[in-house]
Automatic annotation (TrEMBL), chains A, B:
It comes from Bursaphelenchus xylophilus (Pinewood nematode worm). Keywords: Aminoacyl-tRNA synthetase, ATP-binding, Coiled coil, Ligase, Nucleotide-binding, Protein biosynthesis. Its EC number is 6.1.1.21. This is histidine--tRNA ligase. GO terms for biological process: histidyl-tRNA aminoacylation; mitochondrial translation; nematode larval development. GO terms for cellular component: cytosol; mitochondrion. PANTHER family: HISTIDINE--TRNA LIGASE (PTHR11476:SF7), HISTIDYL-TRNA SYNTHETASE (PTHR11476). It catalyses: tRNA(His) + L-histidine + ATP = L-histidyl-tRNA(His) + AMP + diphosphate + H(+). The keyword Chaperone does not apply. One of its GO terms (molecular function) is ATP binding. Pfam families: HGTP_anticodon (PF03129), tRNA-synt_His (PF13393). PROSITE patterns: AA_TRNA_LIGASE_II (PS50862). Residues 1-28 form a coiled coil. L-histidine binds at residues 106-108, 133, 149, 153, 304, 308-309.
Amino acid sequence: MSEVEKGVKDLKVKEQKARAEKMKAEGKFALKTPKGTKDFGSSQMVVREKVLGIMTEIFKKHGAEAIDTPVFELKEVLMGKYGEEGGKLVYDLADQGGEACSLRYDLTVPFARYVAMNKLANLKRYHIAKVYRRDNPVMTKGRFREFYQCDFDIAGQYDSMLPDAECLKIADEVLSTLDLGEFEIRLNHRALLEGIFALSGIDTKDFKTVCSSVDKLDKVPWETVRDELVNEKKIPADAVNHLEKYVRARELASNPTNEDLLKIFETFENDRVKVAVNELRLLLEYCELYGCNKRVVFEPSLARGLDYYTGVIYEVIVKEFSFVPKNANPENPEENCSVGSVAAGGRYDTLVGMFSASAGKKRTDIPCVGISFGIERLFSIMEMKHKSEETGLRTNATDVLVASAQKGLLKERMKIARILWDANIRTELPYKANPKLLNQLQYAEERIIPWVVLLGEQELNNGLVKIRNVKTREETEVKIDDLVEELKKRLS
Amino acid sequence: MSEVEKGVKDLKVKEQKARAEKMKAEGKFALKTPKGTKDFGSSQMVVREKVLGIMTEIFKKHGAEAIDTPVFELKEVLMGKYGEEGGKLVYDLADQGGEACSLRYDLTVPFARYVAMNKLANLKRYHIAKVYRRDNPVMTKGRFREFYQCDFDIAGQYDSMLPDAECLKIADEVLSTLDLGEFEIRLNHRALLEGIFALSGIDTKDFKTVCSSVDKLDKVPWETVRDELVNEKKIPADAVNHLEKYVRARELASNPTNEDLLKIFETFENDRVKVAVNELRLLLEYCELYGCNKRVVFEPSLARGLDYYTGVIYEVIVKEFSFVPKNANPENPEENCSVGSVAAGGRYDTLVGMFSASAGKKRTDIPCVGISFGIERLFSIMEMKHKSEETGLRTNATDVLVASAQKGLLKERMKIARILWDANIRTELPYKANPKLLNQLQYAEERIIPWVVLLGEQELNNGLVKIRNVKTREETEVKIDDLVEELKKRLS
């Protein structure tokens, strides 16, 4: 930045501050939503409801039940569940007397609290709700402070990998049905990471911090990760060199199959690795039976951040869109195509037990596995898709506008509207005593309302009204007594 | 309370405190949701989704669009909108750096902020979301600190009483469709209250405090209200005596019609009263055209608490249930029947303008009218109704359980489940390698799953499976190739 640019920027910041202070002094304030949050207008709501409808239908198809929990939890419930970084991002409620509470950070911890509190032995549930993180928002990239999560989880003591396979099947169904583009389900196992870290000679106490570096491998080259591990985190270079061969196994082999990689790892002399290889192999076999194996990729570098995972972990990424985004930047195809992770999850067998134990009761572990969809990203992609297809999205569901061809006739219009409403036909009428015909027809066209019922005094005297097809402008006279039937015929 | 009772109570409180402190010292805590909040289990969610589905369908039938706003707003947005009492009940977020924010208290103020911020000239929207009040919760009576509101509002400059009439029509449709019992829509006008207060000689500055006393008339006798006004609030006895004749007009006349009462008030020499009478008469006429006039009762004592109303105000009360509640208390029929207000609303023509003005812009008033449904009460009544009818409520939507008649056959079951899922048939299979047949059939019965697909080795060898009707226990052999078609036939 040049001196002049810097000067201009400083002046602007100063001006902005002065304006804010002046407004405050006058008891005024900016009309906006809080930082990192946004309103959903009706055209966004239509997309949102479409996406959520598809997901809900798939969850129900797999026998899941819905539950809901409060937006805020007791502070103790959330503490110590999200690692050092995550913990800092939790929103607290002000101390206004009473219990210390925090806004929920995800839906998994409230789910585990719910299972423990109600002493449930098993539960297959979905939960669609907003969560809160005091993160640095990047609104254009779909990173918000208030955002939706959409979770499917299975709690219960079951035979190995059966619920896990169903979670991957669901991920496959959701992404296939949304039809947003090519996707990949990346798969790894917490025990595999533990095993190869141990084999590399990495100290157990460094597990989390090494994980968080390794997890960056899908975004930055190995050299950057290596540098961070050796120079910043002071992991011995020897250990890091060992680790490289393991976590980059897929990259370093020439186009290996999942089984090729598993064959490499199964030779390792480490019990944790053996557990992981057996479970991953079984899971991949089940995925084949469920017809969702083609998109599953065993990726030894996948690490994931959260503390509570104990078994398989996975993440779904959209690799390429099924459409050409409007306003795509031809200079930078990466930017247009890559949205990264749209869902993630894994097995967490000890979280419910942590809650029963911290409540001072006998510890009861209920194994759990689940998947959480990053709905905001799916919304964004779906919105881009709709824009690229330039299909007019309806924000209302109105089927009929009751209009009058001449001045007045308000009461007659109201009577007709009543008949249609009482027959469950989606109907609007202008809130004007004397609306102009042109304005009414324009309203119907703008709102993409397919039919207009048109009233005229002469027709009314003969017990008739006109039905007008907004698209073709064709008009048909019908008896008022037959109006409901005639409209239902056209709407079915 | 006797001395002994008091002693026992004190001891209990002491014991409870000691227990809490001991748990805290051990790093333990009670497994619960915060005070005034609750989880929704799957059987409650089913009721909730049913009620919300009915309401959403009615809102859409009237051409409304959905919007959503953040759970928290800038503190300034909420300040000064809910009167002295309401303002104290707003939840604040902790100061963790950044803007001062509060949890939304209702959906009306965020709606007005949204209209002003987006400079909309009109909007007909519905919004279903949770709101937050630090009130004293009474969980058994459906008074929570976190609860749903379900709002329908019309913003825009329209001809008199047309949007208002549609709000009452919607209230009538919602309550009729839910079929919970006899209900009444009580109606009044802010200008009528202003007029009769002035005619009684009550000072303008006392308007709000007198309103809040008068509003209690549906719960306590006039003598109590009078006592509060004269002795506590120091309103001159003369003025209160005058006021009585007006606010008790319905009570004191012998079974008057709405028009009878309007005829009394229209003789009053007061401009505000005249405005109110004209608007109420027009509204009642429109309600007749919409076929919802029979439940509308003009009630001069209805006052409502919130500051922002400027025109008609109304409230919907359920007077008598359509069913006999289970565990009804025969000693106290009142308790079983009366749930009071389930919806309320009115006209607020200046709220949007307040926002455009406080944002330092030119004040633009957008007249608004709306209705807010107290969904928690409607949920409670609906739950009571379901319990009284003892109809088994399904919490899942599963149509088919894939079971095996003998040990093993896991992979075969998985293949069949995959076929059904891919054909969009709602299917579950037990997460067990060797489930017992009896347990599987019991699971289907408990979960009210209507069909079981039963696998046996011999049938499989011939390309066959059995379809079992869970209710009749009838079994039919079908070819695996025909299974989807056969099931779809049974499910349609």
